[in-house]
């Protein structure tokens, strides 16, 4: 490796006499030049270090802090600047009094014979820094006070702006829960004006939907953790009860005593409505609005469990539209959908007691869950459905037996007890439906095992 000074002796001679420590690095971070002032500062002679990796003498310079900032210089990138007051010392130099020299180091590109090097210039700013420090010390306390005041003013402006403009309602109370201030969003959400709220307590929002234990848990969380966040139902000024997400924070003084409480609230009425709509859609059949098969299976299991706790006859009705494929083929799917809706409306109107549930079981098949219902009552409901569907008088010229749409109905009844499951009542109702179809359709068949099982 040639010495870079050989390529530009005049320039290097000038650099050699600058009041700066100057060294030049190749792209592999080897020293190709080391000036006289560095020899004086470090006691390392030029011939001892030129050609060596710089990190061999100064291992700390292999830190990415230096390498990653110097590397772009070799590609013509921006200069890199280091200060020993912000970083570690670039080239550690001990002063006569034992202190470390304060340095300002700049790394810039140096192009020589179409090769780019990194020129490192190190300025001793110890004396300048000392003078500046002495000057700063005279004003440091005053500057601190000014900066602190500015910081507080900025925080106050930001807080005031947030308080006024945020879409979340905010209210602040004293340690006794008396409201000190509210923001415009609070007024909009609750309907209470600032004049009405200030001096009052949050009890003005109490909806009555939560018991004392609920509020006790809130205060326990606030006193233990300094914070509570959760869903709560409150009441607007007009009496409307609405859901919201609320966060309550305890504000303590420098001694740890609670001086205020701050609450942030968000009205989630629309979100709740959307969730309810999605829940409704997930449970219902899109065409008939009856419950879908998945909901039927879940509710049948739930009702069966309840029936096991207070045993009574449990019935299930299965309904199938007779010759529905022929109806669809003859009149088209649009009329087929109208037919399904009409039959579904008849079935839905037949089971309105608590616990009763009507569902589209699949295709042209429907089901009715009848907990706490003996076979005789279930058969009566089934017969009512059969007659009302026939009474719709939907024309069905391709029906083999009738000129209108009809249904076959199967009723299964069991007595819930250990060793039995909801599948037993499904099996019975399905068998009864098969019987009704086999015996000529447009009729009700029943299989009752409740009496035999109970006795």
Detailed description of the structure:
There is one protein chain. The chain has 455 residues and is α+β, with helices and mostly antiparallel strands. The protein folds into three domains: 4-124, 2-Layer Sandwich (Beta-Lactamase); 166-268, 2-Layer Sandwich (Beta-Lactamase); 284-454, Alpha-Beta Plaits. Helix content is 42%, strand content 24%. The strands form three sheets. It has a five-stranded antiparallel β-sheet with strand order 2-1-5-4-3. Strands 7-6-10-9-8 form a five-stranded antiparallel β-sheet, with helices on both faces. Helix 15 (422-438) links the parallel strand 14 and strand 15. The mean pLDDT is 84.
Please outline what is shown here:
The protein is α+β, with helices and mostly antiparallel strands. The protein has 16 helices and 15 strands.
């Amino acid at each position: 490796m040639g010495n870079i000074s050989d390529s530009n002796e005049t320039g290097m001679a000038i650099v050699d006499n600058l009041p700066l420590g100057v060294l030049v690095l190749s792209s592999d971070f080897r020293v190709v030049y080391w000036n006289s002032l560095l020899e004086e500062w470090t006691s390392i002679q030029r011939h001892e270090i030129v050609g060596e990796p710089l990190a061999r003498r100064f291992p700390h310079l292999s830190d990415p802090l230096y390498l990653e900032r110097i590397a772009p210089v070799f590609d013509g990138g921006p200069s890199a600047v280091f200060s020993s007051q912000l970083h570690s010392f670039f080239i550690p130099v001990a002063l006569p009094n034992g202190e470390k020299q304060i340095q300002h180091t700049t790394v810039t590109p140096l192009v020589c014979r179409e090769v780019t090097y990194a020129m490192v210039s190190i300025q001793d700013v110890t004396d300048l820094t000392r003078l500046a420090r002495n000057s700063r010390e005279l004003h440091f306390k005053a500057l601190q006070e000014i900066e602190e005041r500015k910081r507080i003013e900025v925080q106050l402006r930001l807080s005031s702006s947030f308080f006024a403009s945020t879409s979340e309602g905010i209210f602040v109370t004293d340690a006794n829960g008396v409201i000190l201030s509210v923001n415009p969003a609070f007024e909009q959400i609750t309907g209470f004006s600032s004049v009405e709220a200030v001096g009052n307590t949050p009890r003005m929002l109490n909806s009555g939907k939560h018991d004392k234990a609920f509020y006790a848990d809130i205060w326990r969380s606030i006193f233990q953790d300094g914070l509570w966040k959760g869903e709560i139902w409150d009441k607007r000024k007009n009496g409307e009860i609405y859901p919201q997400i609320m966060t309550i924070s305890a504000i303590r003084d420098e001694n740890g005593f609670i001086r205020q409480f701050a609450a942030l609230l968000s009205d989630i009425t629309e979100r709740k409505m959307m969730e309810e709509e999605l829940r409704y859609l997930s449970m219902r059949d899109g065409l008939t609005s009856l419950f879908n098969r998945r909901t039927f299976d879940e509710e049948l299991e739930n009702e069966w469990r309840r029936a096991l706790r207070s045993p009574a006859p449990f019935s299930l009705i299965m309904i199938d539209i007779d010759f529905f494929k022929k109806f669809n083929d003859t009149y088209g799917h649009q009329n087929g959908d109208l037919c399904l809706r009409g039959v579904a409306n008849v079935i839905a109107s037949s089971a309105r007691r608590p616990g009763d549930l009507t569902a589209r079981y699949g295709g042209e098949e429907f089901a009715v869950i009848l907990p706490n219902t003996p076979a005789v009552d279930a058969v009566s409901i089934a017969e009512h459905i059969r007659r009302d569907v026939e009474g719709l008088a939907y024309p069905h010229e391709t029906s083999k037996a009738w000129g209108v749409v009809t249904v076959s109905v199967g009723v299964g009844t069991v007595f819930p007890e250990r060793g039995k499951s909801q599948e037993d009542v499904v099996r019975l109702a399905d068998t009864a439906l098969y019987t009704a179809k086999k015996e000529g359709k447009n009729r009700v068949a029943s299989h009752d095992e409740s009496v035999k099982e109970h006795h």
